[in-house]
Amino acid sequence: MKEPTRSLVYLSVLRSVRSVAAGILFIVFPYMVRELLHGSLFELGIMYAVAGLATAGLSIIVGYMADLIGRKASLYISSVLLVLTPIVMLVKFNLATAFAAAILGGISATGAMGAGGVGGVVGPVQNAIIADLTHRGNRTKLISLLSFIGSVTAAAGTLIGGMFNYREELLLATVISAASMLLIPQLRLPDVRARGLSMKSKVNAFKFSVTGMLNGLTNGLTVPFIVPIFIYVYDAPRYLTGEVTTAASLIATFSMLLAPKLEESLGFLRSIYITRGLTIPIMLAFPLVGNFWAAVGLYLAYPMLRVIAIPVQQSFLLELTPPEERGRVSGYNQGSRLLLSSVGTFIGSPFFYLQDASLLGLMPLYAVPFLAYAVAMGANIYLYRRFFGADEARLRGSSAGVEA
Asked: What residue ranges are annotated as transmembrane (predicted)?
């Protein structure tokens, strides 16, 4: 087995093992807040928002570490945080430790959404490693495959999250997340490091940060509340919530395998326009249907449309970025997304405080953030074209030149 392939296999296994632990924590955490702390949906939203802010900052730090101290060292440091999360929850679970666990584990988004969710602080260094071990011709395909494998195991984690009592779930998450770190020494990586803090790709870092911000805002306004809506509004039992979340994760996961075909047939920008654009009517309808199974149907479609183009977007970002700056640009993109995701969650949380209240008798009050989602997503799609239209045309032209 060639060295890059061998390391990609180990990286895939490492991500998969971590994803199981992350999936368990994603399901267990909101139920522990509700049943042990008697926390409201509003309080849970604040925890998610604070966790998102912390993860945003940590993502940028990890991105810098990936470029300045090396990929493997930064992977060790960032991986420890997920191990500490269930340990903190096991030692004592109160309001303070719940906030601490949410911050350490980055418990702020759905398991189906992937990067930047539970344990997502490792995202920038993992993206840099993938770029180091691939080339333009196979990068989107391999990102799709690794994301697929990781998401399948995350779905397994969400399913396991509804099977045992809380202590058993947390012990299992601790052992699994710790075991994943044993795989890091097996990675054989090129020693890619920046010589200093200055960056040649500042403009692209800015563009990806701005689009990341709007993408994060749409996430923060809605995503952290979808599963809690099932819990608080529809009073869904834990096993059913776990099964629905698992189904959504699996549908989204299998859709990622279509990313290379999507890129080949539509290109980067049209992939974003179509898939993200279709989420707008889904999010407008979700808070208005008033029926659990109708809401489930919309939820099953939404993550698929949000994630199917992620490998295309990541591959495009990495292709435009010099190797020694990929950790930082990935960190800025993820950090800005999570920062605005937290802002969106702060904005959205008050609308969920009175979950039975209505807006002028026309719709539930918690529908307002979903309306804001449509506006922000429309602006995000516009900026993708404005920022990256010329870059896509240039890359397409260079590819045509190579083939000729």
From this structure: 12-33, 45-66, 73-93, 99-122, 142-164, 210-233, 239-259, 271-293, 338-354, 366-384
